[in-house]
Design brief:
Chain lengths: ~110, ~160
Amino acid sequence: MAEMKTLIKIKPKDYKAGDIVKIDFMAMHPMETGMRKNKDTGELIPANYIDEVKFSFNDKLITKMVIWESLSVNPLMSISFKVPGAGTLKVVAKDNKGQSVESTTQITPKG
Amino acid sequence: MERRSFLKGFGAAAACAIAIPQVVSAADEKKNGGPNEMSYETAVSAITGGKALVASAKVKMEAPEIAENGAVVPVKITVDSPMSEKDYVKAIHVLASKNGNVRCANIYLTPANGEAYFGTRIKLGGTQDVVAIAEMSDGTFLSTKQNVKVTIGGCG
């Protein structure tokens, strides 16, 4: 599989320190359940899904997720975050085959 | 063996079998190549460790009543909590009660979240209850559920 593409969105775009914002994390991933069959060969497609996502701010863990194949294809995970100030938000996602991807975004509060 | 003593012994053995609680070991949690399977009861006991689940209005779930496409069902969960160091939501667990593997996501929160919220999109194999369990910092488990009618299943 090609490298996992990810996207982090902070909502709303403008926020101040102390505000509670929403962090949307999206990953391009097939989230195979292991129950689907290849239509040409009839073989089961092995399960392949993201099983762990960690959100951290300035290297301090804020949220850890353990997830399973029941999340939709190209899963979206959204959490709240109280902005303490400027810093780096890092999201590390890992799938059951050991593939992992790290994405970061800067948190820059205004005012 | 006399019939009476045999029955006594049998009864004792049966009682033992019931008394042993269903323990979910770390090995069961481990994921392999094949499809995961876990029943609702096993998943709940794994989360709560046998503690009671209290239905509470503090846990709110936003999910469609009718989902036309079971492959993408948006679910949003919020839990009423000050999210302070002393009183916060430790985890939000999302379960789809009739999927082969009922577990969808376990979200471990910290006070840094500021608000206990989790939003995602899940697959539902058919019409069923979606259950959210909030693990509070005082050790109690609050829950809520919503029935979602699915017209086209999402596990094809």
